[in-house]
Design a protein that fits this description.
The complex is a heterodimer. By secondary structure, chain A is of the alpha/beta class. Chain A contains 7 helices and 10 strands. Chain A has helices at residues 48-56, 95-105, 111-123, 139-151, 169-185, 197-203, 237-257, and strands spanning 5-15, 21-32, 37-41, 63-68, 71-72, 80-83, 157-161, 189-193, 206-211, 216-222. In chain A, helix 2 packs across helix 3. Chain B folds into 2 domains: 1-38; 45-257, MetI-like fold (Orthogonal Bundle), CATH 1.10.3720.10. Chain B has helices at residues 5-36, 47-56, 58-92, 94-109, 112-123, 127-151, 155-163, 168-205, 211-220, 224-252, 254-257. Chain A binds chain B through residues 56, 58, 75-76, 78, 80, 82, 84, 86, 88, 90-93, 101-102, 104-106, 133, 135, and chain B through 154, 156-157, 159-166, 170, 174-175, 178-179, 181, 253, 255-256, 259.
Chain lengths: 260, 263
């Protein structure tokens, strides 16, 4: 089943603490074709995480709407996996139980689910850690568990909110490579929020650049790099050209605002 | 980090040594002063006299202890049975919270010692008013701790639950309650200590048995050693029950006991 994401004319306004209305998103329209990887970059506060929550059905937009596979999104869907900025693991239970948590909420933990979870953990290099608790794992390992948890239901759509944002640079690169492997093995429709321009270019089929206050789309940069990709790509002229184009938008905006 | 169990035991004994020595020394000093200054037993009995009084009255004292234990445990159980749903109600709806909170605070501002005689008039001179007083003393900290724990669930875990389409009940049982466990045990530890206090208050007012009753009845007849003995037993009950709650937490929720959030 095709699972393209369509965002049409989404405006979002939220109420700040003093009661005034703050526009977070203005006139966002975006399509992510089936099994395509779209990365969203932009300054802090540009609403890229808000947009993710709207696509996930966690918050309703003030105006406009979202469809996944043609059906309007009104609440969270079972065929959508989400990876948050922090691992958000349940600290009181094991790694394996955390990965199985989505299945267990749906009453669908069976031997096939267990095999799937164990297979994912093995693929993520976490074999042997199944019965540890999250606090015994490093930050990078915890985030890998969170990715396994998002994948265990075999979703068609993956929404990732700066999943590697809290990790150190080395772990971050390693995780990017792992995500590349996952996507190449089993492509999904992915909305990926990041602060890192090179991460966005390396991973995605298209980079969406957003500006802040209110968040709007300022450019969409198609990335035509062939797959499979690797870190040797970062020196290629077409990689550098794309990255430069994206940075020009982000830093151009900052100069315009006088932030330097 | 990984030390041998034997080494850990040595360390535990070593850390328990100073307070034990201090305690024994204080008892010895007490005994010495009473003997040295020849203080009459009805004014201040020596530790040996207290022990002696307890031993002589052993079957009688045992009955009173059982009665008090019964009041404490039933009062504690009722506190959990009523406090728990109340806390869930407070934590799940701001409307219920605003409706219930003033009532809860009201029950707490009424002095329990003052209300106990009235309860005896209404409910009769039986175990019921004692249990009710115990409950009234113990349930408030429990409700507040459980509600605070449920409300302190990390918002990202709630969002995870919502993203996974968890129902209200699943959110409560699978996410909110487990994450509130350290708070719940803080509340239970307070509630069990308060239950002992509540039971004694109840027994002071209206009872024909129980350690609280033993204290009042013995002092009325200047059997001070026995009254002291009852107080000692009450402290022992308090400590043992508190440690029992600690043990339950360590055994069933080890992650909570080591999380550092629990008192």
């Amino acid at each position: 089943m095709a699972s393209e994401i369509r965002v049409y004319q989404v405006d979002h306004v939220y109420e700040s603490q003093d009661g005034s209305e703050v526009p977070a998103l203005a006139g966002i329209s975006l399509e992510i074709p089936d099994r395509r990887f779209v990365a969203v970059v932009g300054p802090s506060g540009c609403g890229k995480s808000t947009l993710l929550r709207i696509i996930a059905g966690l918050i309703a937009p003030s105006e406009g709407g979202v469809t996944i596979g043609g059906t309007p999104v009104t609440m969270p869907r079972e065929d959508v996996g989400i990876v948050f900025q922090t691992p958000t693991l349940l600290p009181w239970t094991t790694v394996l139980a955390n990965v199985l948590f989505p299945l267990s909420l749906r009453g669908r933990v069976n031997s096939a689910g267990r095999d799937k979870a164990e297979g994912l953990l093995r693929f993520a290099g976490l074999a042997g850690f199944e019965h540890k608790v999250p606090s015994e794992l490093s930050g990078g390992m915890q985030q890998r568990v969170a990715i396994c948890r998002a994948l265990v239901t075999n979703p068609n759509v993956l929404l990732m909110d700066e999943p590697f944002g809290a990790l150190d640079a080395l772990t971050r690169e390693e995780m990017s490579l792992e995500l590349l492997r996952i996507c190449e093995r089993d492509p999904k429709t992915i909305y990926f929020v990041t602060h890192s321009v090179s991460e966005a270019v390396l991973l995605s089929d298209e980079v969406v650049v957003m500006s802040s206050r209110p968040g709007r789309i300022v450019d969409r940069v198609p990335i035509a790099l062939p797959r499979p990709r690797g870190f040797d790509f970062v020196d290629r002229p077409d990689f550098l050209a794309s990255a430069r184009r994206i940075r020009a938008h982000i830093f151009g905006e900052r100069h315009g605002l006088g932030h330097g | 980090m990984a030390r041998s169990p034997a080494w850990r035991r040595v360390r535990a004994i070593r850390s328990a040594l100073p307070p034990t020595i201090m305690f024994v020394a204080l008892i010895a000093l007490w005994e010495l002063c009473v003997r040295l200054f020849d203080i009459p037993e009805f004014l201040l009995p020596a530790p040996s006299a207290i022990l002696n009084a307890l031993a002589q009255q052993a079957p009688n004292v045992m009955q009173h202890t059982q009665s008090t234990l019964f009041t404490v445990l039933v009062g504690f159980a009722v506190s959990i049975l009523i406090g728990f749903p109340l806390a869930v109600a407070i934590a799940s709806s701001p409307l219920l919270a605003s409706a219930l909170y003033p009532l809860l605070v009201l029950t707490q501002s009424v002095p329990k010692v003052a209300i106990a005689p009235l309860l005896v008039i209404t409910l009769g001179a039986n175990a019921l008013p004692r249990i009710l007083v115990t409950f009234l003393v113990a349930f408030f900290p429990l409700v507040i701790s459980i509600a605070a724990g449920l409300l302190a669930t990390p918002p990202e875990l709630i969002e995870l639950g919502r993203a996974l389409k968890a129902s209200w009940l699943q959110l409560l049982v699978r996410i909110r309650l487990p994450s509130a466990i350290p708070f719940i045990f803080s509340g239970l530890k307070m509630a069990i200590t308060f239950s002992v206090i509540g039971a004694v208050v109840g027994e002071f007012i209206a009872a024909d048995r129980g350690l609280g009753y033993l204290v009042t009845s013995s002092t009325a007849f200047f059997r001070t050693s026995l009254a002291f003995g009852a107080v000692v037993l009450l402290s022992v009950i308090g400590i043992v029950l508190f440690q029992a709650v600690v043990l339950v937490e360590r055994v069933f929720f080890p992650w909570s006991a080591t999380s550092g959030r629990s008192l």
